[in-house]
Amino acid sequence: MWHPVIDVSESDKDIVIHAELPGVSKDDIEVSVKDGTLTLTGERKSSVDETDKDKTWHRVERSYGRFVRSMKLPDNVDPKGISATHKNGVLQVEIPKVAREAPERQRIDIR
């Protein structure tokens, strides 16, 4: 099992996650959100073709297999507005923020 490395940035309008997934097809990636947790799951397949009898592998260092990355989302995001794109081996997930109203000041009577 391996874990893709991620970068997380935040602006006033959104949170953006970049996950490095070289060699992983977008069809092998799933992005989901449940109970305030964003989860990236998928699989990078091995480049070693064990049915190819004409090759002798001297070294295999690249990681492959299933992966899962989960992160708790803050309360001020819109989970229904999350979008994802996959380009050049990088998955980009955009999580829009929702505006929070400033809490009203409430005076408490002292008895």
Report on this model:
With 111 residues, this protein is mostly beta strands. The protein has strands at 6-10, 14-20, 29-34, 37-44, 65-72, 83-87, 90-96. 0% of the residues lie in helices and 41% in strands. The strands form two sheets. A four-stranded antiparallel β-sheet has the order 1-2-7-6, with no helix packed on it.
Secondary-structure map:
Blueprint: E1 6-10, E2 14-20, E3 29-34, E4 37-44, E5 65-72, E6 83-87, E7 90-96
Antiparallel strand pairs: 1-2, 2-7, 3-4, 4-5, 6-7
| Cα end-to-end separation | 62 Å
Average pLDDT metric: 89
> How much helix is in the residues?
under 10%
Largest sheet: 4 strands, antiparallel
Shape: elongated
Number of strands: 7
Give, in order, the helices and strands: EEEEEEE
Structural class estimated from helices and strands: mainly beta
Low-confidence stretches: none
Strand content: 35-45%
What is the rounded Rg? Answer: 21 Å
Q: Order the strands across the largest sheet as they lie in space.
A: 1-2-7-6
Keywords:
111 residues, four-stranded antiparallel β-sheet, three-stranded antiparallel β-sheet
In short:
With 111 residues, this protein is mainly β.
